[in-house]
Amino acid sequence: MDDLDSKILRWAQGYNAYERFAGDGGFDHAIRPLMESYALDGRIPHWVGVDYLKAWAFYCARRYRFQSPAASFTEFSPEVLDIAARINELPGTVADDRFLALPGDRKPGADSVPTGIYTTEPMLTRALAAEIRNDPEAFLNGLQRHGIQKTLKPGDVPRVECEGVARLDVVVYLADRTTIGIEAKLDHEITQAQIDKQRDAVDYLFLLVLDKADAGDYSSKVTGVLTWDEAIGYFKAPRLRIEDIHALPPQKVMIERAFRPIANHLRVAFGSDWTVGVGRGGSGMPAITIWSPVLADGRQLRSQVQVAGRGMPKHLEDVRFEFHAGIETSPDDTDFPQADKVSDPPDWVNHIVILRDEVIRGDLDRYRIRKGRAGNGRRGVGKNKLGLVEKFLPNDASLALGYYDWAIGPKSRPVAQDELADLAGSAHELLSCWHAAIEASIEVDSH
User: Fold this and answer.
1) pTM over 0.85
2) For domain 121-246, which CATH number applies: 3.40.1350, 3.90.1720, 2.40.128, 2.40.10?
3) How far apart are CA 117 and CA 44, in angstroms?
């Protein structure tokens, strides 16, 4: 652990959140809304005070101590740097609250507090709605290239609303009952279910993105794709400017753009029997997700090349990437019985053993695999995971990471973006060799 890591870990642990913020029973519940907000846009809400921030830093340190990952503290919880920077610049802090050993670009006054007029994505979409309401004719003239031909008379646009029907960002209602919906995407995820619902709710549906490539496969499922630059350009003297759009850093979109060419390469490398896609995981973070062909026992190998850690760092240069590769598991008693009640390992353990003995063979560095401790699920049969690992994989806990209701397997060491392509190559080699080894073992067993 380097000097910065050891200092900021001691600082985070120095606040007793159990006494000053919330008891153990309600601590996780109190911190979670702040973590979820940060995960969406990489920003700390302006209303958060010193004690809340110190409690959050303490939570990061506690989680790091309990999980004991191979990554450093700031790699595991990069948000702690943003927390410290925000605390340092709050006027109500005292010397004991502050962490003054931050790198130069994170010292108070650098860029940790947004200074633009529009500080959230909803603010921008509401500003666009106001532009449309002020000059609907200019807006509809701009849409003519997408096949919407409307000649307006005064009063022909009686209503413009935000976040109304089907939770669309903007809906324009025309006097002839035509409806035009706009779903804006800066840094949040769009899903197929969302598009299907919105397409059914309006006559015309447009995606509004920074770059048309950001629409991905959804471009063929909507009336048209608009860029923010294009939409603002429809108006003669807009109050909303393209500088306002770029003031909100779209880290997740930028990472998705970096992922797409790598995903295309992986599709070719794996072949048509494998499935490779770019999307967002359960935490809303971008990932390349990989599924193998179905194995003889009905399972698949599953993998994600993803952002390491829980939150999105404010600075792209601070983002680290990792992969997780695992064997599919189910949250039931077959895969996760109580360890003291079984003598034979569940089938997923046997797949991990094949990975260990036939693929890795003691050489973790070949695949960039990191050492670490397996954790337990928090509910249901997931609580049985650690007991099974200790019983059947006592010396190989680092090969049994992941979520019990998705896949269990190893994780890689985190790397910077300039090593992302090599990281994906390691994931491809590991998964390909593992799949081949499983298939070979099944063939041997059949004879």
Assistant:
1) no
2) 3.40.1350
3) 17
